[in-house]
Specification:
- By secondary structure, the protein is an alpha+beta fold.
- The chain is built from eleven helices and twelve strands.
- Helices cover 57% and strands 17% of the residues.
- The strands form three sheets. The chain has a five-stranded antiparallel beta sheet. Strands 7-9-10-12-11 form a five-stranded mixed beta sheet, covered by helices on one side.
- The chain starts with a helix and ends with a strand.
- The chain binds adenosine-5'-diphosphate.
- Adenosine-5'-diphosphate (ADP) binds next to helix 10 and helix 11.
Length: 467
Amino acid sequence: MSLRPLNRIWRTIGFRLTLWYSALFIVSSLILFVIVYFLISSSFRQEERYTIQSKLREFSAQYQRGGIEALKREVGFEEHSGNLFFVRVSGSRGNTLFVNIPAMMGEGFDTRQIENRAVAGSGRWMHLPAKGDKGGVLDIASTNLPDGRILQVGMSRGEREEFLDRFRKTFAGIIIPVILLGFTGGVLFAFRALMPIRNIIKTVRSIDKGRLDARVTVRHTGDELEELTVLFNGMLQRIEVLINGMRSALDNVAHDLRTPLTRLRGTAEMALQSGQGMEVCREALSDCLEESDQILTMLNTLMDISEAETGVMRLRLERINLSLLIEDVVDLYRYVAEERNIAIYVKTPGGLFLTADHSRMRQVIANLLDNAVKYTPAGGRVYVEASREGDHVIVRVEDNGIGISEEELPKIWGRLYRGEQSRSARGLGLGLSLVKAVVHAHMGSVEVYSEPERGSGFVIYLPVNAA
Ligand code: ADP
């Protein structure tokens, strides 16, 4: 028979937990029994010794008061009341002068052994075992009487033994139910304890089958397993967002690149089919080159946007001086602006520091400034302002250009969207999508306000300490 299934069961945490729990339960019950047994037994022993010693004192006092006769009367009285004691008075040489052996004791113990034995000294104890294999012991204490004789008083341990025997038998009777209880408790305990783990396994299995939205049910127990479940669900959530983001990024890139690639192919095909001279081919090649450059820029920007949107963009966060950065970017555009007779006004405090990715922030400001200059007719004005408010930095790029209509406003953030009036200007329709994605990646937000023919304003809010 193959041992593999047994081996598999043995290796499950559930089975091992059950075994450990049951073993712990059973061992604890056994230890408890032993302790209780020991305590009861020793308290019985003390009680018996106390009784024997106090009787010894009582009988000795009787003897001293009225001699052997008074002692006999007292022993008889005790026996009448149901208290059975072995009592013996012996001479200094060990000869028996008086002995009282209750009938039951006479049957159980060979009391002659005591009678023949010489005992000396107070506080001495003798322990006489029962006849044959009956079990039981007769405990005897002795004391010296003032006249040189010796008084011995003894009592059988029978009652104690009987009680302890009943106790042992009762325990033997309940040990099987205790083991079963321990095992059942172990099974229930392991079942409950491993429930979240089983849920996680079930969830992972369904994710394996393609159900990305599967989550583990959270049991609000406040323990480590709840924490694990919550963390696990959080991780699944992020993975789902990432995978969906990557899927849609791939779809978008494929979709967005189709048009320029078709155009590129068309140009090359037409040049080939035209059968005309070198000049036409050269022109076509130059168009193809331009088109492929544009495709490359577009591909890079699309990848940047997707990365920023899905949260996988690697930001090199550092302490940057935004005022300086703005001055730099403005310097770049000043020449183009002057050519078109557009004035750029900058207003920033001396040093405006924040934690951000320098080159990405540069891209953001450049895109906004590029748009402001591009969509503002000659003679216009562009304002760039930056300030700090609480734990945020605010950057505003405003122009008095062509503006954006109310219907177009929500669409301008979309990938590849280009406004009606802007189609004649250069551009890919990706600038604002990138701005929004990068600002969000920095935990910031961006807003726009605009009025056709009067101008537009873009406002960025960035936390001073982006996580
Ligand atoms: P692109 O500028 O390449 O067209 P963007 O994503 O930067 O793409 O902008 C999307 C659209 O938003 C633009 O086509 C334009 O219609 C509008 N837009 C952006 N900035 C401004 C602005 N400062 N003034 C007027 N329209 C703007």
